[in-house]
Amino acid sequence: MTTSQTTQTTQRETTQRETTQDTPPAERLVLGAMMFGTVVDEATSFAVLDRFVDAGGRWIDTADCYAFWASESGYGGQSEELLGRWFAARPGVRDRILLATKFGAEPRDAADWPASRTGLSAGAIKTQITGSLRRLGTDRVDLAWGHMEDRSVPVEETADACAALVSDGVAARIGLSNHPAWRVERARRHAVGQGKEPFSVVQHAYSYLQPRPGTLTGNHRFGWLDDELIDLAAVENLDVWAYTPLLSGAYDNPAKPIPEVFDHPGSTQRLAVLDDVAAQVGASRGQVVIAWLTARGIRPMLGGSKVHQLDAAVAALELELPAELVERLSAVELHG
């Protein structure tokens, strides 16, 4: 094994250890920086980031396209730029956190998204990660993601370009977000066959409630974490990250109704069990959801915009659900 390969292996093992149940609670949470620098102002963003680090949190997730839909220009980059300013204002903090960013979903023409976006060709990946590093004010990231699938490019080309980020020392690990299981596995088999770094992490929307079959939960056809991806991750030892685990606050905030795609008899049954478990352990619905995800080896991503939301999530990670309650929550029929 070469020195470069040894370094890459060490980096990968270090980040993989972050997913274990032996780590401090806050280390099992991902802070999503999606709206930092647009909807969430700089002072509030800095306060949330500071509290996250003070609580022992490490993973921060962003993307080069965040948040184009909330910006005046119609293009992204604001989240990465804010994080870059935060790093500059907090000397030494970059070495205390693990940084992830995504590429492939930034609009090329803001008036024609998602048809017009940067995509996942080799050239686009190289250009996008270069821009991300510049905005972030760093020379490497701990995890680089392909943000959404690009059917115009062979997935093998995407796999090779992302593997090069690791061999070049730009990223410690690589992952895919919002991709169907078959493309994740095709990309992985190609990389392994070529002796290159394979994708080892997947990121999808996921929560305790499950959507009606055949419905979309967002902008991505394969955005929801399905059983096939969960099975692939278990067999291939992939890490799993879940965004929107709290359904944007709908579990506990009466002003935010449960989204319509989750309105079916299976959800009624699940909510009844969730309420009962929450009462037994003295926690909120959302806290039980986070604890349930963590108990199943899934890393929850919090896109909170307020310090108290972060505090509640960290408290949830300190909640140890007994195995019988985890099983009870999981055993409810998903769909009525």
Automatic annotation (TrEMBL):
UniProt name for this protein: Aldo/keto reductase
All residue ranges annotated as the NADP-dependent oxidoreductase domain in the record: 28-332
Biased composition (Low complexity): 1-13
Region (Disordered): 1-25
InterPro entries listed in its UniProt record: AKR_Detox_Biosynth (IPR050523), NAD(P)_OxRdtase_dom_sf (IPR036812), NADP_OxRdtase_dom (IPR023210)
Superkingdom in the source lineage: Bacteria
